[in-house]
């Protein structure tokens, strides 16, 4: 049988057509499909683009697709799920099952290969999500930067600007990096850039400077990262206390922010004071393979061979797939 996995985010979306063993037959990448950011019409158009490519590249396999799993950032709304399902239903085989969900499960499965666990994703935005052994789902955050993206690149960047504005008399490494980034000599000149149309992304781009300043011994940067780690650890511990069978949890830390060893180390240290019996994993395959696993799991067993096969094929020239 054949399956389709789609990982849709706020900057890019990837789709694969493959088998339960991770043999990737077709691959396609396009722009953002988060309906809250790109808009629903753009989201639907790009999903059609992806599926059309998969069909054209491997029509025989496409005609026998058993299941498609769409992990879409912002896709937790039932209205979005219904709209996406209704839109792509006519261009899929009649027998194919369609699942549309947020991107948390795909990211989780990219590390656990289909097993339950807790994941914290920190990119431009953030979310903490748990799936227990009974299939119950729980989440904290993920409501967007206006309502709560704790631990995200945006939140870290915002804290950096706030600290620089509050302690304007200091010329700390962090403040100097922010001023250099915006090509100005006064921190107040940063404010207009923050309130532009792309202000969210402008703020999130400051996140790497916080880690750089931390490595240079900046006190404000250290405090920002410690506060961030504590907030993430609190969310993880909160979910561990609420969900079924939380005695021995697998925790996945994913997203660009979690590529920084300093924040991972701080989270581990803080979490050890709040909870016990947990282990941390990092993703072994891209989230789109996690989406493929989610499509496969209701029908076939998922084996570790999917990791070897998927990575081998995805490391090749995907433009020809």
From TrEMBL:
Domain called ATPase BadF/BadG/BcrA/BcrD type: residue spans: 4-294
Q: Which domain of life is it from?
A: Bacteria
Signal peptide per UniProt: none
Q: Record's InterPro entries?
A: ATPase_BadF, ATPase_NBD, Euk-type_GlcNAc_Kinase
- Name of the protein this chain belongs to: ATPase BadF/BadG/BcrA/BcrD type domain-containing protein
User: Source organism lineage?
Assistant: Bacteria, Bacillati, Bacillota, Bacilli, Bacillales
């Amino acid at each position: 049988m054949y399956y389709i996995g789609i990982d849709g985010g706020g900057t890019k979306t990837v789709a694969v057509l493959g088998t339960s063993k991770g043999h990737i037959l077709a691959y396609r990448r396009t722009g953002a499909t988060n309906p809250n950011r790109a808009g629903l019409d753009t989201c639907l158009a790009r999903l059609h683009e992806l599926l059309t490519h998969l069909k054209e590249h491997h029509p025989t396999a496409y005609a026998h697709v058993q299941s498609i799993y769409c992990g879409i950032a912002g896709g937790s709304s039932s209205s979005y799920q219904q709209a996406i399902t209704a839109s792509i239903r006519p261009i899929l085989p009649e027998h194919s099952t369609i699942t549309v969900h947020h991107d948390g499960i795909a990211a989780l499965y990219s590390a656990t290969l289909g097993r339950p666990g807790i994941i914290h994703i920190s990119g431009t935005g953030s979310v903490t999500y748990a799936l227990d052994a009974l299939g119950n789902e729980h989440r904290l955050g993920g409501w967007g930067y206006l309502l709560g993206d704790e631990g995200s690149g945006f939140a870290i960047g915002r804290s950096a600007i706030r600290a620089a504005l509050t302690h304007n008399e200091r010329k700390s490494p962090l403040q100097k990096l922010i001023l250099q980034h915006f090509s100005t000599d006064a921190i107040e000149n940063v404010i207009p850039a923050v309130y532009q149309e792309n202000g969210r992304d402008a703020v999130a781009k400051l996140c790497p400077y916080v880690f750089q300043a931390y490595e240079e011994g900046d006190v404000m940067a250290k405090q920002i990262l410690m506060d961030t780690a504590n907030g993430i650890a609190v969310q993880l511990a909160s979910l561990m206390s609420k969900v079924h069978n939380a005695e021995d949890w697998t925790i996945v830390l994913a997203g660009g922010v979690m590529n920084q060893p300093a924040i991972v180390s701080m989270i581990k240290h803080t979490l050890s004071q709040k909870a016990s019996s947990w282990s941390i994993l990092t993703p072994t395959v891209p989230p789109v393979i996690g989406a493929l696993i989610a499509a496969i799991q209701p029908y076939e067993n998922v084996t570790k061979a999917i990791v070897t096969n998927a990575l081998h094929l995805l490391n090749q020239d995907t433009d020809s797939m």
